[in-house]
Amino acid sequence: MGIKGLQGFVARVCPDACRMVDLKEMAEKHRIDHPDVTPVIVVDAMSCVRHWYTPESWVCGGQWREYLTVLEDFIETFKAAGIELVFYFDGVVEEKKRDEWIKRRQQNNKEIANLFQFIKTHRKQPGRGMFVLPSALPTFTRFALKSLGQKTVCTLQEADFEVAAYGLQHNCMGILGQDITVMYSREDLCRALGLNIMHLPLFACLLGNDVVPENLLEGFWHKCLVICPSRNKSYNRRTSIILAVANYISKIPCLYSSLKHLEDMLPLGSDKTLLHRGMESYLLPGQQSPWIPPDARNFSMFSGQEETAMCQDKEIFQVLWNDYSLKDVMEKQLPIFRIQGETNEKGNDEFPVIKCLPVLAKEHHIQSENYAIFNILSNGELECSNSLEDDCDTEIPGQALIYRPARQHIYSVLLESEGDGACPVVKEWFVYCGNPLQQPDLIQPVQPSIPGGTPNLKTLWFAKGPDVEKQRYSTFLACFHLQDAMEELQALEAPVAAFCCLLTYLMLQLMQVDSRAVHLGAVLVRGLTTLLMANSACGFPFRMDDLMPWKVFDGKLFQEKYQKSHRSCSLEELLEGNVSNYILLESFVFFKKNVPVHNYCCTGLLSLYFSSFH
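^ Family with sequence similarity 120 member B, sequence as received from the core. Prediction below:
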């Protein structure tokens, strides 16, 4: 949890706490101090994606191959210094952070509305000052880093906590947020503020964080400013508040009674535990705090999602092989069956391991090997952040609504019981026009149309043989109402088949350019995440790598092709005279007979793919 304004404060008031570093020197010193430990830096990836995305075009969906090159160069910088990286991504939105998450989404909506207004007025991409992340960038960054051989972790609770816990447990060199050449010293910061290290959690809470809202602290800040007014008239209000709060904290004893006194003094409303919980959120496993005695702690390493499992098939939540309990699996970390492993750790196909789906889903979630499945199976809840969508363009629904029918089928595949087919509803926190996010949408799963019924998860995830592979593929297609096109799709290369699935599902009729192309680019990229979810639920009929945007999409080229398609360019020009591209297009039209070849919406999108990567 960051402290608003602290980075600027350090630069202005105590620049000695911010040091330029040499990665090779740091790594060498770490090897000397810890000869048995490889130098490792833990990367808070969510705070870095904005800095990583440097390709020229970003409004039309992203230049994914260029972005992949940026990530490769980033990794090589550390590899050259002998440093390994471990990347952490937020995997859940904890309930205590829900209000803050909603607040940020609403702020992002305003930024996106301003972006579209600029595009409509100037008909060009704005400068970096209005930069908004390409849709689904964090999701595909996870998979990109995995494809580049990096250890990538999707968290079970707030990423800040797990990043710090990993760094402490593995004696890592440090934690990387934004700038790879700058290191912040806690000791120097404390010295400048007149604090000690033990003060920092309280300091963070009293300046406002994701647990303790700033609006509850205004009165306290005023009191601190009265006691310790700013000595420098050039300081802004935030800088003055930081200094005044530090002065206040430095004068109170590090005791639980001091924390209780603050809780009584602050206007925390009905929840007097806010400050306590905020402090506790900074405590890592094994750490003690003078502010919170052990008997007053309510500490839990993980957020307890497993305790409220949504799946109705009770056998799924029992051990299906050997006599181990779920407790044994969790505590002893017994080997887990891997979907794409094909053989167990002994190199045979007998699989004498635990086949426990929640554990498998959890492990795949942590290792970034599936998309959204654990969140749905464990507590029936799913979030989707902002997309670059124009709320003023009422002819194109938001991607959340476009892909909802597909998600309903995916939820059914994951949650349906083998008895009466009843499913619990799924709570969706999806950003779209008209949704105030005051409460989740309650989405009822809908069975896909599959002859003989939907295969259960044990079949889709664990069974072997050609018939099962066919079931996985047909179940995936049924989520998008394409089960009748299975033979035609299987004749195509996997990335082409996946993209054709997406286009057939969409098939939007478009009449304008520019801002609408931006909107459509976001819809397409978000559609790829829906393919990822369906693929994960259905036991991976496709390789996840075949569903990545750098295999099928380039935002800058998409804009060019989109504009050409609306200037009545010929099909030959859109396909750039490439015969193989035309053959692939004909394959698509063959199984989607009601889409004529002269539909330039379709051909423009397909030609963008074919001409980009063939």
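The chain has four domains: 22-180, 186-294, 370-506, 515-590.
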